[in-house]
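SRPBCC domain-containing protein (Vicingus serpentipes), 126 aa
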Amino acid sequence: MSDKVKYELEFVIKSSPSLLYSYIATPSGLGQWFADNVNSRGELFTFIWDGAEEQAKLVSKKTNSSVKFKWVADEDPETYFELKIQIDDLTKDVALMVTDFAEEDEVDEAKQLWEAQLDNLHSIIG
């Protein structure tokens, strides 16, 4: 059973779904906003921040829709992080839905980290 709690965030992104997908599903795209550098070998992605490496397995992906990763070091089978593109039927606004897990006392800090990273993505996409 997980000690971590699931949380979700929504960020409106002024972008086409296909362009946004290239930033969430490819090492080069993720390396521009999510981490300092990202490498992949098949389904295994290595994320590098300030010289520290974390590995995540690509659990699933749907073209122009979503990607789901599982941190290799996290032994909890229930946890993952997912980036999903949603399009509002009425306004056609494109949003990026982030689903992640954190310890209960670290959720606010984790949300702030995602917000900072998505600010980076906003500045790149324009």
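The chain has three helices and seven strands. The two ends are 41 Å apart (CA to CA). ok done for today
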